[in-house]
TrEMBL record:
It holds the Pfam family TadE. Keywords: Membrane, Transmembrane, Transmembrane helix. It comes from Streptomyces rubradiris. InterPro entries: TadE-like_dom. Residues 9-51 form the TadE-like domain. The chain crosses the membrane at residues 21-39. It comes from the Bacteria. This is Septum formation initiator.
Length: 126
């Protein structure tokens, strides 16, 4: 008994039809990884900025140390549009804002911004 040839090549057609969906799923997963990594970077930069501010002497040097440490702990592709704000009145806080890249860091960014916030108690030495 011979099988009819009506469904020959059906798997190839289905694979070609699913390829765009598979690629779109991979792109969306990669973008989700970038968003998560951006949250991690912003939080770490804020922690390091607050830590650096508590170690610096009071005054303008503290603000400069905080901002410099926050930017230093960001990767080059995320550093471009990042901003670091520090508040040093007794309880040191650092806020870091980082743009979320689209697919390739350093090329183009979403209009969305990720914020990292950290604080540290100022230690008094006698």
């Amino acid at each position: 008994m011979r099988r009819p040839d009506g469904d020959r090549g059906q798997v190839s057609v289905e694979l070609l039809g699913m390829t765009p969906l598979i690629l779109l799923t991979l792109v969306l997963m990669w973008q989700a990884v970038l968003v998560g990594y951006t949250f991690t970077l912003a939080g770490n930069a804020a922690d390091e900025a607050a830590r650096a501010a508590t170690a610096a002497p009071r005054g303008g040097a503290r603000q400069a140390a905080c901002a410099e440490a926050g930017l230093r702990h960001l990767s080059g592709a995320w550093r471009g549009d990042a901003s670091v704000r520090c508040s040093t009145s007794g309880y040191v806080t650092a806020d870091v804002s980082v743009e979320v890249p689209v697919l390739f860091p350093g090329v183009i960014s979403f209009p969305a911004t990720v914020h990292g916030h950290a604080g540290a108690v100022e230690e008094v030495t006698r």
